[in-house]
Design brief:
With about 725 residues, the protein is of the alpha/beta class.
């Protein structure tokens, strides 16, 4: 394997481990082992710098009992060099060598990464650059771990563990302090450790000033359009925001260590309660006015942090619900887990959480009311469980599970570059579902053979205006270049339903899931469809690309898209603009009519892709976002299996590939059934690909096909599960 490939694999392991290390410092041991193995040195150690003192937090050679003890003299000397120059430092003699890379976070050194070799071994320039890149990734992690360890120490003596059961929505588990979304605001824990009071107070003052300016604009407009009497209402609101007692209370809260959001929320609530306690006429109206000011101020505070949550707000996000655009803005390095009181495993927020690698549990009643900012939470996305204020034994149990998870990740890495073929030679294409272009660079390290589904709607969700053709082209071209030869299947904009696009200014519909959405919406807006198709075609010149039409109900949609595609291809040819004339066009099978017409669709499309999430929803009439009917959402329903089998058979007869790109594609228990039914490609969240490959490589296609025939004869879900269980237990 080339040095570049080895470095990419090492970085992939480290980045995956970093997600876990944000939860517990024990996982850092696995990271230093990976680094030591890559650079082939005798020792790798990681130190945290806190209040000008270095503490050993992870090492692969020294007795782990030394963690927290004094630094070796050599390392102290290296620290002096690295700190003074803010750059990598070397020490070597004829018998040994040592290198130290400072971990620089917010222009300050947060720690030190040290490698030691028993022989002179100066690093090559490219190796030094790679080590510095690793240090950059670790730099922001150590402060988060330190904050988490403080939270754990506080909770270990705190009784009252409470366990909530919900719906497993995104696998893995996260441990961290609660961040609560309530009433449009983010309730965060009281800050710990380093806290810049002047900066926090400045943020709050800016939010209050912005609220005052907004009200002044309203006051002037209403006075112009209506009367001075009505505009005076906004003037009185502005006077409330400048009340000295009011501002002094807020400043005091900030000085006591509360975040601007919590300070504003608490002080507003205190004044509102005091006003409502007075039964005199007119006081209730003043309380309502203050409530409006509170929401306006909290909203301004959230906009101030438009780039995301601050590092010291890292933790578990608790909310009543999250839309796709909310979830798409999350930083997985700061959001360690998601808990919502509504929703299910196939909501788009859950799908996006999985693509981000963030554990999530949804449909958890009572959690938003029970948790308070700063409470320690464990989110178990495997079991659908949330633990509030876990006791020491529970914390130890989950920290041990995290260590085993990292070990299994290293084992999966061994099969990542093996072919996804059954024991009897049946090849299955394993591809990735993506919603973010940045994920492309790690695909090869996970063994992905391409992108089976790129959700282009997430390019549209975060903005108030539609991206034009040129903007889309530049993004798609960059993606093709980043993919470096791996094929990408772009799903044409799938807007509507639970993915409303603000820039479309769509009309409100009583039932948006069955309304003007997806390909129907695009065909009614040829300007949007044309711009996207043209941008995609232009980008197809830079690498292998496939296009996918969502929510097809019949031949009409295919012919309309083919017609527009042909016209754009002709126009590009006349202009001398290069594109791939052999670009493939596929069809998503998501609704019953497409299942029934699959033999016809297979003859006119280049490939079929089954979206099991929507197929189950529309076949079984089960709202995928409704936790009250989540138990009815079942891929093993005989009606759903019959639909998948029909589509697979249609593809086989037409000699066209048939993929499954829903969440079922990554379920180890269901993969043998899908393979047995004749599915040729599986597309899933990238992190699940190594495990899926391991399942396929242990499988006999002949036996899987026999099992699938038995499953199709079953009359109930329980009978199907019995067939699967018997197959799994067979030799």
């Amino acid at each position: 394997m080339s040095p570049q490939s080895q470095a990419a694999r090492t970085l992939s392991l480290i980045m995956e481990a970093l997600k876990v290390s944000s939860h517990a410092s024990s996982s850092l041991t696995q990271i230093v082992k990976v680094i030591r193995g890559h650079f082939k040195v005798e020792l790798c150690s990681l130190y945290e710098l806190n209040q000008e003192q270095l503490k050993l937090v992870a090492t692969d050679a020294v007795d782990f009992g030394a963690v927290g003890h004094v630094l070796p003299a050599t390392h102290l000397k290296l620290l002096e060099l690295a700190t003074r120059k803010m750059e990598t430092a070397f020490l070597e003699d004829r018998r040994s060598s040592c290198i130290a890379v400072p971990l620089i976070h917010r222009e300050e050194i947060s720690g030190l990464l040290v490698l030691q070799s028993a022989r002179p071994q100066p690093l090559k320039p490219e190796e030094a650059r790679f080590l510095e890149f690793i240090a950059l990734q670790l730099a922001g992690t150590l402060p988060a771990i330190a904050a988490l360890e403080r939270a754990k120490r506080q909770v270990r003596g705190k009784p009252g563990q409470v366990v909530f059961e919900g719906i497993a929505a995104s696998p893995g588990f996260g441990i961290g302090p609660a961040l609560l979304l309530r009433g449009g605001g983010l309730a965060t824990p009281v800050a710990q450790g380093s806290y810049d009071v002047a900066h926090e107070w400045e943020l709050l003052q800016s939010a209050l000033e912005q609220a005052s300016q907004d009200l002044l604009g309203l006051e002037r407009r209403v006075e112009k359009e209506s009367s001075k009497r009505e505009s005076d209402i906004f003037g009185s609101h502005r006077m409330m925001l400048s009340d000295p007692d009011f501002l002094l209370r807020m400043e005091t809260e900030v000085k006591n260590g509360k975040s601007p959001l919590q300070s504003a929320g608490d002080v507003f609530s205190e004044f509102i309660r005091a006003i409502r306690s007075n039964p005199s006429p007119g006081f209730e109206e003043k309380a309502v006015d203050l409530e409006e000011l509170r929401e306006r101020t909290l909203g301004n505070l959230l906009k101030i942090g438009v780039q995301g949550l601050r590092e010291d707000w890292s933790g578990i996000l608790v909310a009543k619900s999250l839309g796709p655009s909310d979830t798409s803005r999350l930083d997985p390095q700061k959001i360690l887990g998601i808990v919502t009181t509504t929703g299910g495993p196939t909501s788009h927020a859950a799908i996006l959480a999985r693509s981000l690698g963030v554990p999530a549990v949804m449909g958890v009643p009572g959690i938003a009311e029970s948790a308070t900012p700063g409470d320690l939470l464990i989110v178990d996305g495997d079991k659908g469980r949330v633990i509030l204020n876990p006791d020491p034994a529970t914390l130890d149990e989950y920290e041990a599970l995290e260590e085993r998870r990292i070990e299994s990740m290293v084992e999966f890495d061994a099969v990542a570059f093996q072919p996804a073929a059954t024991r009897d030679g049946r090849r299955i294409g394993l591809e990735a579902n993506l919603g973010f272009a940045a994920d492309l660079k790690t695909l090869r390290n996970l063994g992905a053979e391409g992108v089976g589904l790129f959700r282009t709607e997430f390019l549209f969700l975060k903005r108030s205006t539609l991206p034009d053709e040129e903007e889309q082209f530049n993004l798609y071209r960059q993606m093709m270049e980043d993919a470096a030869g791996l094929p990408i299947t772009f799903r044409i904009l799938d807007a509507g339903g639970d993915k409303p696009i603000a820039a479309l200014h769509a009309i409100q519909e009583e039932n948006p899931f069955l309304g003007n959405r997806s390909i129907r919406l695009l065909l009614s807006r040829p300007d949007i469809l044309g711009a996207q198709l043209r941008a995609l075609l232009r980008a197809s010149h830079f690498g292998p690309m496939r296009l996918l039409i969502p929510m097809v109900s019949g031949m009409e949609e295919i012919r309309e898209v083919q017609k527009m595609l042909g016209a754009i291809q002709q126009d590009l040819s006349e202009q001398g603009i290069r594109f791939d004339p052999r670009i493939e066009l596929g069809v998503m099978i998501e609704i019953p009519s497409a299942v029934h017409l699959s033999p016809l669709l297979a003859r006119h499309a280049d490939f079929l892709s089954i979206g099991t999430n929507d197929l189950i929803q529309f076949t079984l009439a089960v709202d995928r976002n409704n936790e009250h009917v989540a138990s009815y959402f079942e891929i093993l329903h005989p009606g759903v299996l019959a639909s998948i089998a029909r589509v697979a058979e249609a593809g086989a007869k037409a000699q066209k590939p048939v993929a499954v790109c829903g969440e079922a594609a990554s379920d180890p228990a269901i993969i043998p059934l899908l393979v047995g039914l004749g599915i040729t490609h599986l597309s899933m969240t990238p992190a699940f690909i190594p495990a899926a490959k391991r399942v396929i490589r242990a499988l006999s296609h002949r036996k899987a096909a026999e099992m699938a025939k038995q499953a199709l004869l079953a009359t109930t879900i329980q009978e199907v599960k019995a067939v699967l269980e018997e197959f799994q237990n067979s030799p």
